Amino acid sequence: MFLIIGTTIGAGYASGRELWEFFGHGSGLAIVLFVVFFSFSCLVIMSISYRKKSTEYRPVLKEIVGEKLSPIYDFMIFLYLFTTTVVMLSGSGATGQAFNISYWWGVGFIVIMLVLLFLRDIGGLLSINQLILPVLIIGMLYVLLRFTVDHHLNLFSHWREQHNWPAAFPFTALNILPMIAVLGAVGNKMSSKKEIWIASLGSGLILGVLTFIYNNSLIQIAEEIFLYEIPLFAILSNYPFYMVLFMTILLWFAIFTTAASGIMGLTTRLESYFSIPFWLLVLIILATMIPLTTVGFSTLIGVLYPLYGLLNLYVLTRLLLFPLWNKREK
């Protein structure tokens, strides 16, 4: 469950930038639909991964999109993981800049920490998610609920505005492609079907509640968001320094867990081609990403995320209709 949440809550999500790109005003129903679509998609992916006891995503991908299209989506997943991990590295640099720390120090620090994490292969990622994610979720909920109370906001004041409900489709599609990559790599780690149900439903509900509260807070500061690279800092602008520091640390951990998930998906896909240690392959992949971080955090999210959301709609359709496709093929 924490692996799923950690993959989803990255620099784009935790900073508020990704949510504002897709949601904003009139999105209550869109968020509810996202919970349903996301939970069901994770359930399907994990069921296939568990049945195949997979250690990388290709066998799972073939079953979802079919033999003919799997090479195309294999390339798309690889490109997605690569570019979104670049976004995470860039996000680490942007987070450091909020405290007048050099952008490159922020990028360099996350690269070193990722290499250290994977000295233990993928076991390190599974362990660290269990430690970091509960703190991250509770911390974000605390800050967002405090903002709601301090500004006397009604969480359901915009419930009648539902014109943006179609946003649920590209937003879910954007977040489901990395799920195939990450959950496809841990099929041999699952021990029962109960795990699949708890992880799918639990992660969907937690993300839904967090997304709804976060989006409601962003609506209140809509006029100020364009002034900030990271919208979260607009919410925190009138709070004491210790709260800003606390949330910045949590934001960095969100960036770190998603970058780690992306690197895991890339490395498990490539390791069969190279007879070198896992951590060294991680280092080589990260080295190729560093020059691309110069594009800028908000630019990367504004261009790449909506594009991936649209391109992945076919995968989402296949997942939502998977029981029907599967029955027909059998």
Tell me briefly what this model is.
Helices cover 74% and strands 0% of the residues. With 330 residues, the protein is mainly alpha-helical.
**pLDDT average, as an integer?**
83
Shape category: globular
What is the rounded Rg?
A: 19 Å
Find the CATH topology: Hydantoin permease
Please report the number of helical segments: 16
**Domains (count):** 1
Q: Name the CATH superfamily classification.
A: Hydantoin permease
Oligomer: single chain
- Per DSSP E runs of 2 or more residues, the count of β-strands stands at 0
> Main β-sheet, in a few words?
none
Helix content: over 70%
Structural class: mainly alpha
Low-confidence residue ranges = none
User: What is the correct CATH architecture?
Assistant: Orthogonal Bundle
Query: What's the helix-strand series?
Result: HHHHHHHHHHHHHHHH
Strand coverage percent: under 5%
CATH class: Mainly Alpha
Terminal CA distance: 30 Å
Task: Please provide a written account of the structure.
This protein is an all-alpha fold. The protein has a single domain, classed as Orthogonal Bundle (Hydantoin permease). Helices cover 74% and strands 0% of the residues. It contains 16 helices and no strands. The protein has helices spanning 2-8, 11-15, 17-22, 28-52, 58-65, 70-97, 103-117, 123-150, 168-183, 193-220, 232-235, 241-270, 278-289, 297-311, 313-320, 322-329. Helix 6 (70-97) packs antiparallel against helix 14 (297-311) and helix 8 (123-150) packs parallel to helix 10 (193-220). It starts with a helix and ends with a helix. This is Membrane protein YkvI. Keywords: Membrane, Transmembrane, Transmembrane helix. InterPro entries: YkvI-like (IPR038728). The chain crosses the membrane at residues 26-50, 71-89, 101-119, 131-147, 167-186, 198-219, 239-266, 278-301, 307-325.
